[in-house]
Amino acid sequence: MSGAEPAAAGAERLFIGGEWVAPDGGHYDVINPATEEVVGRAPEASRAQVEDAVAAARDAFGGWSRTAPEERAAVLDRAAEVMRREFVPYAELAQAESGATTGTARAMQVGVSVARFQRYARGALEPVEAGLPPQVNGAGPMGKAGVVGAVAVRRPVGVVACITSYNNPWANPAGKVAPALAMGNTVVVKPAPQDPLSVYRMAEALAEAGVPPGVVNVVTGARPEVGEAAVAADGVDMVSFTGSTAVGQKIAEECGRGMKRQLMELGGKGAALVFDDADIASAVAGIGTTFSFYSGQICTAPTRVLAQRGIYERLVAGLARYAARLTVGDPRDPGTVVGPVISAAHRDRIESYAELAVKEGARLVTGGERPAVERGFYVAPTLFADCTNDMRAAREEIFGPVVVVIPFDDEEEGIALANDSDYGLLDYVWSGDVARAFRVAGRLRAGGVGINTVGRNMEAPFGGFKRSGVGRDVGSYALHAYSELQAVVWPG
């Protein structure tokens, strides 16, 4: 069963080759983490349907890759217009399936998606050629003496499997799909199983915007076999993945066997170095976003605080006061700051880390108990002090509203502690001495460093060192990530 229109609300269909297709594996429930009610029913694709989606993307690649950049830009701009028109219902759906607060669902989920489609509409028009200096060659086995010109040209990679994270069902897919399409690639999107419904609305917006059949395909499933099929398919040229390091390692192994390009944005355990001369209020407000932003379910969060001893107790007290003031509850309530985490299983995992931290000798300052909320998967903002860098709670990504604080004596020790981690995504430095802050930033083994801020520059390259990932995206760097370099040479 297929058709030109999406299924009725509550029973979604797959989007393959421009058609809405009934899933071979039936449907599974998508649960609202705030209410534990069913938001809708997501389709369970079969391996054959994933392969159909890849084949559709492969068939569409030739035509789409040869379209004029202006045409690709127009499609992306029109998609952004549809998202703006449907902004409120899209945000309501994102909130229902992810548990985000209203402000986050609107500004950071749908709002960022709109901005990314607009950005890569402009990106489709960026030059793809870079002229190289001519080379003078003497006569020899390769021919007569002469001047050889050259140009480096960025070409589309081909079919990209986009496997997205659950913490942002709009911005994360948009950050993959929009630059990939801008560069002339076609995509098969496999959303996170917890909140996939928003990505089908993104597909609707793109279809209305005029994206040709097969350029964008969406397949979902609660079973890991669906994502595995997308990664392993022979027709896939590149895998773009956001998620845990453990899953990323498995994907990288499969990509290695097929020599597929990969872009991996993996886990984080962001170190926040706070020096004695820091603005404590600024540091508290920045670190405190771990408790509230996505309820700590974000890889860039400053979850591992390294505090110089001169301000250690003041910083711990400030963070405790900050956490205690945060309202936990229904994300639809305007007063709510901390919503639920994505699932009961993830809530239990976070709570187990809190119990482990106490056993390891950490001092529980605030939180640690389950909030008194009748329904939903809630975790109280939790702060641990007197931690050491060898505790599992300090080394492993918890992905929840949990902050650990570790003291240090001097700059060298602080840098050593920060770098003593398997991760290296985003670190942070708070200091009143700007020269020192930049000096320290230069020695941190992280893909990005925030100085006296947790803010982001959305043209700056984003990605990680060590087990935090492979490659860079955001801004023009995403256009580079979704392209291959080709050298063209000619006799001058």
From TrEMBL:
Molecular function (Gene Ontology), one example: oxidoreductase activity, acting on the aldehyde or oxo group of donors, NAD or NADP as acceptor
Residue ranges annotated for the Aldehyde dehydrogenase domain, each copy included: 20-488
Entry annotated with the keyword Oxidoreductase: yes
Database matches in Pfam families: Aldedh
Keywords on record: Oxidoreductase
Family membership noted in the UniProt record: Belongs to the aldehyde dehydrogenase family.
PANTHER family assigned to the protein according to its UniProt record, in alphabetical order: ALDEHYDE DEHYDROGENASE-RELATED (PTHR11699)
Name this protein carries in UniProt: Aldehyde dehydrogenase
Organism of origin: Streptomyces chattanoogensis
